[in-house]
Amino acid sequence: MAKDLHPIKILAFPGAPNLPVFAAREKGFFSEAGLDLQFATTPSSIYQFEQFASGGCDIAFTAFDNIVAYREGQGAAKLAEVPEFRVLLGATQIELSVIVSTDIKTAADLKGKSVALDAVSTGFAFVFYALLEKLGLSQSDYQAVAVGATPDRWLSVKDGKHAATITIEPFTSIAKAAGFHVLTTSSDVFPAYQGGIIAARSDWAAANSGVVKSFLSAYLRGLDWVLNPANQKEGAELLLANMPDIKRGVVGAVMDSLLSPRSGLTPGGEVLPQGVAEVLKLRSNYGRPQKSLTDAAKYFDLSYRDAIKN
After folding, report:
1. Does the structural domain 6-94+193-309 have CATH classification 3.50.50.60?
2. Helix, strand, coil distribution of the chain in percent, nearest 5
3. Structure confidence at residue 122 as a pLDDT band (50, 70, 90)
Protein backbone atom coordinates (compact mmCIF):
# COMPACT_ATOMS: atom_id res chain seq x y z
CA MET A 1 0.00 0.00 0.00
CA ALA A 2 1.26 3.47 -0.86
CA LYS A 3 2.25 5.54 2.14
CA ASP A 4 -0.56 7.49 3.83
CA LEU A 5 -3.27 6.06 1.55
CA HIS A 6 -6.30 4.45 3.14
CA PRO A 7 -7.16 1.03 1.66
CA ILE A 8 -10.66 0.57 0.32
CA LYS A 9 -11.91 -2.72 -1.10
CA ILE A 10 -14.38 -2.65 -3.99
CA LEU A 11 -16.15 -5.70 -5.40
CA ALA A 12 -18.02 -5.14 -8.66
CA PHE A 13 -19.68 -7.08 -11.42
CA PRO A 14 -17.56 -7.19 -14.57
CA GLY A 15 -18.84 -4.85 -17.25
CA ALA A 16 -18.45 -1.59 -19.11
CA PRO A 17 -20.21 0.41 -16.33
CA ASN A 18 -16.93 0.13 -14.36
CA LEU A 19 -15.33 2.65 -16.73
CA PRO A 20 -15.60 5.57 -14.25
CA VAL A 21 -13.51 3.50 -11.81
CA PHE A 22 -10.95 2.71 -14.50
CA ALA A 23 -10.78 6.39 -15.41
CA ALA A 24 -10.51 7.61 -11.81
CA ARG A 25 -7.76 5.09 -11.15
CA GLU A 26 -5.89 5.97 -14.35
CA LYS A 27 -6.14 9.71 -13.72
CA GLY A 28 -5.04 9.43 -10.09
CA PHE A 29 -8.33 10.63 -8.62
CA PHE A 30 -8.40 7.92 -5.94
CA SER A 31 -4.83 8.50 -4.82
CA GLU A 32 -5.47 12.26 -4.77
CA ALA A 33 -8.42 11.49 -2.46
CA GLY A 34 -6.07 9.61 -0.13
CA LEU A 35 -7.28 6.15 -1.12
CA ASP A 36 -5.53 2.93 -2.04
CA LEU A 37 -8.14 1.37 -4.33
CA GLN A 38 -8.36 -2.41 -4.21
CA PHE A 39 -10.73 -3.26 -7.05
CA ALA A 40 -11.93 -6.77 -7.91
CA THR A 41 -14.77 -8.34 -9.87
CA THR A 42 -17.13 -11.02 -8.66
CA PRO A 43 -18.03 -14.34 -10.33
CA SER A 44 -21.62 -14.15 -9.04
CA SER A 45 -24.01 -12.20 -6.85
CA ILE A 46 -23.88 -14.98 -4.26
CA TYR A 47 -20.11 -14.64 -3.89
CA GLN A 48 -20.38 -10.85 -3.87
CA PHE A 49 -22.89 -10.75 -1.02
CA GLU A 50 -21.08 -13.37 1.01
CA GLN A 51 -18.02 -11.13 0.82
CA PHE A 52 -20.03 -7.96 1.31
CA ALA A 53 -21.73 -9.25 4.43
CA SER A 54 -18.53 -10.58 6.00
CA GLY A 55 -16.37 -7.52 5.35
CA GLY A 56 -14.51 -9.06 2.42
CA CYS A 57 -15.26 -5.83 0.59
CA ASP A 58 -16.14 -2.38 1.83
CA ILE A 59 -18.21 -1.17 -1.11
CA ALA A 60 -20.16 -3.15 -3.69
CA PHE A 61 -21.04 -2.14 -7.22
CA THR A 62 -24.13 -4.25 -7.68
CA ALA A 63 -27.72 -4.31 -8.88
CA PHE A 64 -30.23 -2.32 -6.86
CA ASP A 65 -32.46 -5.39 -6.85
CA ASN A 66 -29.77 -7.29 -4.94
CA ILE A 67 -29.87 -4.75 -2.12
CA VAL A 68 -33.65 -5.06 -1.89
CA ALA A 69 -33.50 -8.86 -2.04
CA TYR A 70 -31.08 -9.26 0.86
CA ARG A 71 -32.72 -6.57 2.99
CA GLU A 72 -36.05 -8.38 2.53
CA GLY A 73 -34.71 -11.87 3.33
CA GLN A 74 -35.01 -13.01 -0.29
CA GLY A 75 -31.33 -13.18 -1.21
CA ALA A 76 -29.83 -16.21 -2.93
CA ALA A 77 -26.94 -16.54 -0.47
CA LYS A 78 -27.83 -17.86 2.96
CA LEU A 79 -26.21 -15.31 5.24
CA ALA A 80 -25.94 -15.95 8.97
CA GLU A 81 -26.70 -12.28 9.55
CA VAL A 82 -27.82 -9.71 7.00
CA PRO A 83 -26.21 -6.31 7.50
CA GLU A 84 -28.11 -3.14 6.73
CA PHE A 85 -26.95 -2.69 3.15
CA ARG A 86 -27.60 0.85 1.90
CA VAL A 87 -27.35 2.48 -1.52
CA LEU A 88 -24.92 5.41 -1.47
CA LEU A 89 -25.09 6.45 -5.12
CA GLY A 90 -26.86 5.59 -8.33
CA ALA A 91 -24.68 4.24 -11.13
CA THR A 92 -26.57 3.11 -14.22
CA GLN A 93 -29.95 2.98 -15.84
CA ILE A 94 -28.55 -0.02 -17.75
CA GLU A 95 -29.98 -1.81 -20.74
CA LEU A 96 -30.45 -5.55 -20.29
CA SER A 97 -30.65 -7.71 -23.40
CA VAL A 98 -31.99 -11.24 -23.80
CA ILE A 99 -29.31 -12.95 -25.90
CA VAL A 100 -30.30 -16.22 -27.55
CA SER A 101 -28.41 -18.90 -29.43
CA THR A 102 -28.31 -18.72 -33.21
CA ASP A 103 -31.05 -21.34 -33.69
CA ILE A 104 -33.59 -19.36 -31.61
CA LYS A 105 -35.74 -17.10 -33.79
CA THR A 106 -38.73 -16.37 -31.50
CA ALA A 107 -39.55 -16.64 -27.82
CA ALA A 108 -41.57 -19.79 -28.54
CA ASP A 109 -38.33 -21.50 -29.58
CA LEU A 110 -37.15 -21.30 -25.96
CA LYS A 111 -39.85 -23.66 -24.72
CA GLY A 112 -38.32 -26.66 -23.00
CA LYS A 113 -34.81 -25.21 -23.07
CA SER A 114 -32.49 -24.03 -20.30
CA VAL A 115 -31.50 -20.40 -19.78
CA ALA A 116 -28.50 -19.01 -17.89
CA LEU A 117 -29.00 -16.49 -15.08
CA ASP A 118 -26.75 -15.13 -12.34
CA ALA A 119 -29.08 -16.44 -9.63
CA VAL A 120 -32.67 -17.44 -10.26
CA SER A 121 -34.14 -15.18 -7.55
CA THR A 122 -31.96 -12.05 -7.54
CA GLY A 123 -30.12 -9.66 -9.81
CA PHE A 124 -31.63 -9.32 -13.23
CA ALA A 125 -33.51 -12.63 -13.23
CA PHE A 126 -36.82 -10.88 -12.67
CA VAL A 127 -36.22 -8.61 -15.65
CA PHE A 128 -35.61 -11.73 -17.74
CA TYR A 129 -38.84 -13.34 -16.52
CA ALA A 130 -40.85 -10.18 -17.20
CA LEU A 131 -39.40 -9.72 -20.68
CA LEU A 132 -40.24 -13.28 -21.67
CA GLU A 133 -43.72 -12.97 -20.20
CA LYS A 134 -44.28 -10.00 -22.51
CA LEU A 135 -43.37 -12.38 -25.34
CA GLY A 136 -45.82 -15.02 -24.17
CA LEU A 137 -43.65 -17.35 -22.07
CA SER A 138 -44.23 -18.27 -18.44
CA GLN A 139 -41.44 -19.39 -16.10
CA SER A 140 -42.64 -22.97 -16.44
CA ASP A 141 -41.90 -22.90 -20.18
CA TYR A 142 -38.11 -22.99 -19.69
CA GLN A 143 -35.56 -24.03 -17.07
CA ALA A 144 -33.68 -21.22 -15.30
CA VAL A 145 -30.15 -22.21 -14.21
CA ALA A 146 -27.86 -20.21 -11.90
CA VAL A 147 -24.57 -19.75 -13.76
CA GLY A 148 -23.02 -16.57 -12.35
CA ALA A 149 -21.95 -13.18 -13.65
CA THR A 150 -22.34 -12.04 -17.25
CA PRO A 151 -19.04 -13.39 -18.67
CA ASP A 152 -19.87 -16.93 -17.56
CA ARG A 153 -23.50 -16.65 -18.68
CA TRP A 154 -22.53 -15.41 -22.13
CA LEU A 155 -19.90 -18.15 -22.47
CA SER A 156 -22.49 -20.78 -21.55
CA VAL A 157 -24.71 -19.62 -24.42
CA LYS A 158 -21.79 -19.26 -26.80
CA ASP A 159 -20.71 -22.84 -26.01
CA GLY A 160 -24.24 -24.20 -26.47
CA LYS A 161 -24.83 -25.18 -22.84
CA HIS A 162 -27.86 -22.89 -22.55
CA ALA A 163 -30.21 -21.34 -25.08
CA ALA A 164 -30.43 -17.81 -23.66
CA THR A 165 -29.20 -15.38 -21.05
CA ILE A 166 -29.46 -11.72 -20.07
CA THR A 167 -26.50 -9.44 -20.69
CA ILE A 168 -25.12 -5.96 -20.16
CA GLU A 169 -22.45 -4.21 -22.17
CA PRO A 170 -19.91 -5.07 -23.42
CA PHE A 171 -21.25 -8.62 -23.61
CA THR A 172 -24.34 -7.65 -25.60
CA SER A 173 -22.23 -6.16 -28.37
CA ILE A 174 -19.74 -9.04 -28.18
CA ALA A 175 -22.58 -11.55 -28.60
CA LYS A 176 -24.13 -9.65 -31.50
CA ALA A 177 -20.76 -9.44 -33.26
CA ALA A 178 -20.45 -13.22 -32.86
CA GLY A 179 -23.75 -13.75 -34.68
CA PHE A 180 -26.05 -14.24 -31.70
CA HIS A 181 -29.47 -12.62 -31.58
CA VAL A 182 -31.07 -10.08 -29.23
CA LEU A 183 -34.61 -11.29 -28.62
CA THR A 184 -35.69 -8.24 -26.62
CA THR A 185 -34.28 -5.60 -24.28
CA SER A 186 -35.35 -3.98 -21.03
CA SER A 187 -35.53 -0.64 -22.87
CA ASP A 188 -38.29 -2.11 -25.04
CA VAL A 189 -40.49 -2.70 -21.98
CA PHE A 190 -39.49 -0.46 -19.06
CA PRO A 191 -39.44 3.35 -19.36
CA ALA A 192 -36.75 3.34 -16.65
CA TYR A 193 -34.94 0.69 -14.61
CA GLN A 194 -32.54 1.31 -11.72
CA GLY A 195 -29.80 -1.11 -12.67
CA GLY A 196 -26.43 -0.55 -11.04
CA ILE A 197 -25.82 1.21 -7.74
CA ILE A 198 -22.96 1.71 -5.29
CA ALA A 199 -23.65 0.38 -1.79
CA ALA A 200 -22.06 -0.11 1.61
CA ARG A 201 -22.96 -1.62 4.97
CA SER A 202 -24.45 1.17 7.05
CA ASP A 203 -22.30 0.42 10.12
CA TRP A 204 -19.08 0.44 8.09
CA ALA A 205 -20.06 3.66 6.31
CA ALA A 206 -20.87 5.40 9.58
CA ALA A 207 -17.51 4.38 11.06
CA ASN A 208 -15.65 5.45 7.91
CA SER A 209 -17.61 8.48 6.74
CA GLY A 210 -14.53 10.37 5.59
CA VAL A 211 -13.37 7.42 3.50
CA VAL A 212 -16.86 7.05 1.98
CA LYS A 213 -17.02 10.71 1.00
CA SER A 214 -13.50 10.62 -0.43
CA PHE A 215 -14.37 7.55 -2.48
CA LEU A 216 -17.60 9.02 -3.83
CA SER A 217 -15.84 12.27 -4.72
CA ALA A 218 -13.15 10.41 -6.67
CA TYR A 219 -15.70 8.18 -8.39
CA LEU A 220 -17.82 11.17 -9.42
CA ARG A 221 -14.73 12.86 -10.86
CA GLY A 222 -14.15 9.69 -12.89
CA LEU A 223 -17.79 9.66 -13.96
CA ASP A 224 -17.67 13.30 -15.07
CA TRP A 225 -14.51 12.55 -17.05
CA VAL A 226 -16.14 9.59 -18.81
CA LEU A 227 -19.28 11.56 -19.67
CA ASN A 228 -17.28 14.40 -21.21
CA PRO A 229 -17.58 13.91 -25.00
CA ALA A 230 -14.00 15.10 -25.42
CA ASN A 231 -12.80 11.99 -23.57
CA GLN A 232 -14.78 9.37 -25.47
CA LYS A 233 -11.86 8.13 -27.57
CA GLU A 234 -9.57 7.84 -24.55
CA GLY A 235 -12.38 6.20 -22.59
CA ALA A 236 -12.70 3.56 -25.28
CA GLU A 237 -8.98 2.87 -24.98
CA LEU A 238 -9.35 2.48 -21.20
CA LEU A 239 -12.11 -0.09 -21.74
CA LEU A 240 -9.95 -2.02 -24.18
CA ALA A 241 -7.04 -1.97 -21.73
CA ASN A 242 -9.09 -3.09 -18.74
CA MET A 243 -11.50 -5.53 -20.40
CA PRO A 244 -9.69 -7.84 -22.84
CA ASP A 245 -12.99 -9.41 -23.91
CA ILE A 246 -13.82 -6.19 -25.74
CA LYS A 247 -12.44 -5.98 -29.27
CA ARG A 248 -11.98 -2.83 -31.33
CA GLY A 249 -14.80 -3.84 -33.63
CA VAL A 250 -17.40 -3.50 -30.88
CA VAL A 251 -15.95 -0.88 -28.53
CA GLY A 252 -17.76 1.93 -30.36
CA ALA A 253 -21.15 0.29 -29.80
CA VAL A 254 -20.26 -0.37 -26.17
CA MET A 255 -19.35 3.27 -25.60
CA ASP A 256 -22.51 4.48 -27.34
CA SER A 257 -24.65 2.35 -25.02
CA LEU A 258 -22.65 3.32 -21.93
CA LEU A 259 -22.98 7.04 -22.66
CA SER A 260 -26.65 6.92 -23.64
CA PRO A 261 -29.04 8.40 -21.04
CA ARG A 262 -31.43 5.59 -21.96
CA SER A 263 -29.11 2.68 -21.31
CA GLY A 264 -25.97 3.73 -19.50
CA LEU A 265 -24.24 5.70 -16.78
CA THR A 266 -26.29 8.11 -14.69
CA PRO A 267 -24.87 11.66 -14.65
CA GLY A 268 -24.00 12.80 -11.15
CA GLY A 269 -24.70 9.36 -9.74
CA GLU A 270 -28.36 10.26 -9.51
CA VAL A 271 -31.00 7.74 -8.51
CA LEU A 272 -33.94 7.23 -10.89
CA PRO A 273 -37.22 7.26 -8.89
CA GLN A 274 -39.21 5.63 -11.69
CA GLY A 275 -36.47 3.04 -12.16
CA VAL A 276 -36.45 2.29 -8.42
CA ALA A 277 -40.22 1.84 -8.46
CA GLU A 278 -39.89 -0.62 -11.35
CA VAL A 279 -37.41 -2.74 -9.39
CA LEU A 280 -39.72 -2.83 -6.37
CA LYS A 281 -42.66 -3.74 -8.59
CA LEU A 282 -40.78 -6.66 -10.17
CA ARG A 283 -39.60 -7.93 -6.80
CA SER A 284 -43.12 -7.64 -5.40
CA ASN A 285 -44.31 -9.81 -8.28
CA TYR A 286 -41.56 -12.42 -8.40
CA GLY A 287 -39.82 -12.37 -5.02
CA ARG A 288 -40.35 -15.20 -2.55
CA PRO A 289 -41.61 -15.12 0.11
CA GLN A 290 -43.88 -12.65 -1.65
CA LYS A 291 -44.04 -9.13 -0.23
CA SER A 292 -45.56 -5.86 -1.36
CA LEU A 293 -42.62 -3.46 -1.49
CA THR A 294 -43.32 0.26 -1.72
CA ASP A 295 -40.99 1.98 0.77
CA ALA A 296 -37.93 2.77 -1.31
CA ALA A 297 -36.36 5.14 1.21
CA LYS A 298 -35.22 2.40 3.56
CA TYR A 299 -32.75 1.05 1.01
CA PHE A 300 -30.89 4.36 0.58
CA ASP A 301 -28.51 6.60 2.47
CA LEU A 302 -27.68 9.48 0.15
CA SER A 303 -26.35 11.69 2.94
CA TYR A 304 -22.71 11.07 1.96
CA ARG A 305 -23.44 12.05 -1.65
CA ASP A 306 -25.32 15.13 -0.50
CA ALA A 307 -22.47 16.13 1.83
CA ILE A 308 -19.90 16.22 -0.97
CA LYS A 309 -22.23 18.02 -3.36
CA ASN A 310 -23.09 20.81 -0.91
Report:
1. no
2. 50, 20, 35
3. confident
